[in-house]
């Protein structure tokens, strides 16, 4: 772990002070959220890694859950750390909880905290696996934004880490929780359109080569740490990859991080929306615990659309599902009765 000095206080001393500062959250027999008394055994203390738009959105959702407290946050952008801290502490004050949200540049330092139960991972995709695996190894449960990982190999490694360390792990895929998708899954499973023969799942195009011009890295951003496991000399800084913000006055990101759309830094719509649409389709046909037995990429030997074949004979293709809008993202199930 990195040895940091904060205003003359060693990292070890700093962590000790942090634990003392959180004592007010843990030694009381109970505390109240919106008038509801929460027993100590029902509290969950969170640490956030990745503090962009998704991290802020997840914090807003978690803050509505009785028993949740946020102790720390981590990001490679110091302005985003400060923004998150301000929002958390404003919420803590509204709940009559002593305001405190410690900030970290390196997630390993946050994982050293023994008072944190769960880690939220809302980093760019290429960091999901390492943060999640290290969190499991440090005894934390994990809530990780979709997709699970940057590559299939990384995803399998995360699954092993969860099992080996007996941790609770959840993927943030809100579409699964939406009533319209739950209803669609139930209708397909109930056989309302008969035996499913094929599925059209439109998610969008794969990534393209990085074509953004190189620009100077701002002083508030540790871009080397942002790159992390990518380790690709062709990648350079551009604000579209790490959307900037300001604090006084507050101005939030004007776009979602464009790292998603480039081959060197992301997996395009295939991962971004595929994590939603392919997931819903697999749930509907009973393949949650499995996956395709064959995958044929678009363009391979003349294949028009990326194709997934399942052991039960169902074929799913990544192609338009609406005649009036070829780019609309969504799913169409085609059965022998409709």
Verbal overview:
The chain has 338 residues and is α/β, with parallel strands linked by helices. It folds into two domains: 11-172, 3-Layer(aba) Sandwich (Rossmann fold), CATH 3.40.50; 176-206 and 268-335, Dihydrodipicolinate Reductase, domain 2 (2-Layer Sandwich). It contains eleven helices and 15 strands. The chain has helices at residues 11-21, 23-26, 53-62, 78-94, 107-111, 125-137, 152-164, 179-189, 223-227, 268-272, 274-284, and strands at residues 31-33, 36-38, 44-49, 68-74, 102-104, 118-121, 141-145, 169-172, 196-202, 246-247, 250-251, 294-296, 307-309, 315-317, 330-335. Strands 5-4-3-6-7-8 form a six-stranded parallel β-sheet, sandwiched between helices. It has a five-stranded mixed β-sheet with strand order 12-13-14-9-15, with helices on one face. A two-stranded antiparallel sheet has the order 1-2.
Give a short synopsis of this structure.
The chain is of the alpha/beta class. 31% of the residues lie in helices and 18% in strands. It has 11 helices and 15 strands.
